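job 3f2a | input accepted
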Amino acid sequence: MLISFVRIPQIDKKFLIINNMLRFFGICIVTAIIAWDSVGSLPHPPATTAAPFKQSYDNKFDNVDLDEILGQERLLKNYVKCLEGTGPCTPDGKMLKETIPDAMATDCAKCTPKQKYGSEKVTHFLIDNRPEDWERLEKIYDPAGTYRTAYLTGKGEKKKTNLIITTTERNNDSIPNA
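job 3f2a | predicted structure (178 res):
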């Protein structure tokens, strides 16, 4: 019996390296395709989980000097007449007149901090120093009187707090140190 050996050609090392690299890249590409496809099928959080966009009122008149307006009779009367609809409006007065109903309805939710401070300052000034003007404006913008009630309630609470603090301070002064 004659056994003949067939000579197997030697496989080149470069061929093996290239072949292994091609297999590796093929596996990587297939894995990437599978991963990409499975990521697309994952549940995504609903778009409503993001904080809602809060539109603010225009702030271009935030730097108006309120003390100057409140301190000058003529300027203040012009603004009151504008808001009442009995006189002409400046651009900032017109914007204010258009904004007040929404600001009152939403408790100034779209106001910037500066606008909230300014609105409180002006309304408190009118309630305390110009009640006739406030009453006319209140009939138009706050007929139920909710803002005045809240302001006066808060003012009463502030007086009570100040009285308690003052009384406590005086009582603490009389306590001898141990």
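job 3f2a | The CA atoms of residues 2 and 151 lie 116 Å apart.
job 3f2a | closed
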